[in-house]
Amino acid sequence: MTKLIKSGAYAQDAYAPVADDAALPDGPVLVSLARFNKDRDTLLARNTPVGIRLQSSENPEQVGQDVHHFALISLEFPKFRDGRALSWARILRTRLGFTGEIRAVGDFLYDQVNYQHRVGFDAWEVPDNFTIEMFQRALTEMTNVYQPSADGKKTIRDLRAAR
User: Fold this and answer.
1) How many CB atoms lie within 10 A of CB 92?
2) Terminal CA-to-CA distance of the chain, rounded, Å?
3) Among the four residues 56, 102, 122, 126, which has the most C-beta atoms within 10 Å?
4) Are 127 and 117 spatial neighbours (Cβ–Cβ below 8 Å)?
5) What is the pLDDT along the chain (163 residues), one digit of tens a residue?
6) Could you tell me if 75 and 101 are in contact, meaning their C-beta atoms sit under 8 angstroms apart?
7) What does the alpha-carbon distance between residue 32 and residue 20 come to, in Å, rounded to a whole number?
8) Residue 101: which of 81, 75, 82 has the closest Cα?
9) Strand, coil or helix: what is 19?
10) How would you write 99-150 as a 3-class SS string?
11) What SS3 class is residue 89?
């Protein structure tokens, strides 16, 4: 069982995950890239929010300008060692200008939450044993950073150069 964390608190997931061969229910839906490509016109014509779930092998640039039609892009971590979703989130925020929700799903570690946030994630599906206190601590453990990212936070190099 998983829980959803958004804006630093537990949240209800408004999106119904829809299998590629299932009928579309009323309300906000979360579909795969294959389903979106198959039913693009139908999904975009709906008067409800649409989310897309991308596997780690699916570059968000494959969606093209349709990226701005989504209210949610869910990026999968199939195993904690696979960091492609980190790159996809940064590309979504910086190169594609996506302003909707980017959700982390799958097998990621507590230690990755801070960097996920820095590259653009703003929602997380977490296991039941992952508490809000753990989440808040994960976001604040790193006060100085070495890597530049989508959040614009000054790196240690920037801070040293400013002296």
Assistant:
1) 26
2) 49
3) 102
4) no
5) 679 999 999 999 999 999 999 999 999 999 999 999 999 999 999 999 999 999 999 999 999 899 999 999 999 999 989 999 999 999 999 999 999 999 999 999 888 999 999 999 999 999 999 999 999 999 988 888 888 788 888 888 888 888 8
6) no
7) 7
8) 75
9) coil
10) CCEEEEEECCCHHHHHHHHHHCCCEEEEECCCCHHHHHHHHHCCCCECCCCC
11) helix
Task: Give the predicted TM-score (pTM) of the model.
Answer: 0.90
Q: Exposed (0-12), middle (13-18) or buried (19+): which is 26, by Cβ within 10 Å?
A: exposed
Quote the number of domains for the chain.
Answer: 1
Give, as one character, the DSSP assignment of residue 155.
Answer: B
Domain residues for the domain of 44 are 2-161
* DSSP assigned state of 95: I
Say whether 88 sits in a helix, a strand or coil: helix
- Do you know the residue count of the chain? 163
- Return d(Cα 34, Cα 155) in angstroms, integer: 39
Q: Phi, psi (5° rounding) for residue 77?
A: -105, 100
The token pair at 115 is 């960097």
Q: Which two tokens stand for residue 141?
A: 């453990």
